[in-house]
Design brief:
This protein is an alpha+beta fold. The protein has 4 domains: 2-158, no CATH class; 171-200, no CATH class; 206-319, CBS-domain (Roll); 330-419, Uridine Diphospho-n-acetylenolpyruvylglucosamine Reductase, domain 3, CATH 3.30.465.10. It has helices spanning 2-5, 7-31, 35-43, 47-54, 58-89, 93-121, 123-141, 145-158, 171-181, 185-200, 206-209, 225-230, 281-290, 311-319, 325-330, 351-358, 370-378, 416-419; strands at residues 211-212, 218-219, 237-241, 248-253, 270-271, 273-276, 295-299, 305-310, 335-339, 342-346, 387-390, 393-399, 407-411.
Length: 420
């Protein structure tokens, strides 16, 4: 029978098909892992930790997987061609054509589509299962990686050279691009507002965007689930400090945690990045993006944590029509009209927002918030009942809790707003 006659060739092709499925599933499973999965696997041991370590150098991993998968498929089709030629020489031309088509269909279905589909459905389980043999295959290719990287670099430089970006880009250039690409007026205005917010990030300091130290709760490791029941975390992140100090070192994004262990919750945390208080929002966003983090700790000149800045805070600043830390953290409007010519303002309200809303020139000040300027004028910590003037504004402190948000009454004496 033909099957028995060609059984050695078919057995070799079946083995190569299994290898092709292995590399296809490995590629899909590892690169489909979520951030939370990678963090939890890296905190574990054995195969999960090996899988997470492979993703530390994604270029190395992808090069190895593609190389071995290509080599396996070439061998597979070489054997398929040999079997087809042998069948044709023996006069089985129809069988040779059917065999060639069947070999192609089999490798597409069982070597590519099916294993990748299964890997997408169960990425963590398959990544753990395939991590050890895949790590061996990647290590075997390490001596050839410099040659592959050199060839890749030469290809990019010779065939697809990178164009130099313009050194400067003005708001009017972005506005013109939006007008040319969008015909709907409302959509064009919305996109123009977003582009303005993106450019304005380079002018806003990190301490104007951050969540102040009083607005979040941090925990010192080891952290147990019982600790959260007695002192619940505030916000979308659980902040972990250094073992021997109160400085924020890591954060756990709650929306990415599916199973919470009873002990050592700090193992689920990812390190934060550090930005100085004087850094711009654009610099902070670039640092968060480049290091693939979600939280930045804002530090002062002494290296002390004075607040945190999350990627959600920056995105809210970009896409919200009137971004406000008070609305985001305190669930209240930053400036609330309390009567004719009287407003209640939270201490967290930025001076940039305050002067923009009342259409006045910003008086000189070292502070960036209402609480900061009140302290600066009083030259001490404010207390309920304190009053002070800053430019056209008159502030009266209504509430000054030790932990919490300052609340002041604002009036504008001598202006049209104050007389109405």
């Amino acid at each position: 029978m033909l099957i028995l006659e060609y059984s050695p060739w078919l057995a070799a092709m079946a083995a190569l098909l299994v290898c092709s499925a292995f590399f296809s599933a490995s590629e899909a499973a590892l690169f489909y892992l979520r951030r939370a999965d990678r963090r939890q696997m890296a905190a574990g041991s054995g195969a999960p930790r090996i899988a997470a370590a492979l993703l530390d150098d994604p270029d190395r991993l992808l090069t190895a997987v593609l190389f071995w998968n290509l080599a396996v498929n070439l061998l597979y089709f070489a054997l398929a061609s040999i079997v087809g030629l042998l069948l044709g020489r023996e006069g089985h031309t129809v069988a040779a054509g059917a065999f060639a088509f069947g070999a192609l269909f089999t490798v597409i279905l069982f070597g590519e589509m099916l294993p990748k589909s299964l890997a997408v459905l169960q990425p963590r389980a398959l990544a753990t299962l395939l991590a050890v043999p895949l790590a061996v295959m990647v290590r075997l290719l390490d001596p050839l990686l410099p040659a592959f990287r050199l060839a890749n670099l030469l290809t990019q430089r010779l065939l697809w050279p990178r164009f130099q970006s313009e050194p400067y880009l003005q708001i009017r250039d972005l506005e013109r691009a939006v007008q040319l690409s969008v015909s709907d007026v409302a959509q064009a205005e919305q996109e123009h507002r977003v582009l303005e917010s993106i450019v304005r990030l380079s002018e806003i300091r990190a301490d104007e965007l951050m969540r102040p130290r009083t607005q979040f709760t941090s925990y010192r490791p080891p952290i147990a689930l019982a600790d959260l029941k007695t002192r619940a975390p505030v916000g979308d992140y659980l902040l972990v400090t250094e073992p021997d100090s109160d400085e924020v070192a890591a954060a756990i994004p709650w929306d990415e945690v599916w199973q919470v262990p009873d002990d050592h919750l700090e193992r689920l945390a990812e390190p934060v990045v550090y930005v100085p208080w004087s850094a711009s929002g654009a610099d902070a966003l670039e640092l968060i993006r480049r290091q693939d983090r979600q939280v930045a700790a804002v530090v002062n000149e002494l290296g002390e944590t004075i607040g945190i800045l999350t990627s959600d805070d920056i995105l809210d600043t970009i896409f919200s029509g009137a971004p406000s830390r008070s609305e985001r953290l305190l669930r209240r409007a930053p400036i609330r009209e309390a009567g004719a010519g009287v407003w209640h303002v939270t201490g967290m309200t930025g001076l940039r927002r305050l002067t923009r809303q009342f259409r006045v020139e910003r008086p000189p000040s070292k502070g960036v918030t209402v609480a900061g300027v009140v302290q600066e004028v009083l030259e001490r910590l404010p207390q309920a009942g304190d009053e002070c003037d800053w430019g056209p504004f008159h502030f009266k402190v209504l509430d000054a809790p030790r932990r919490g948000q300052l609340l002041v009454e604002l009036t504008l004496p001598g202006t049209a707003e104050g007389k109405r």
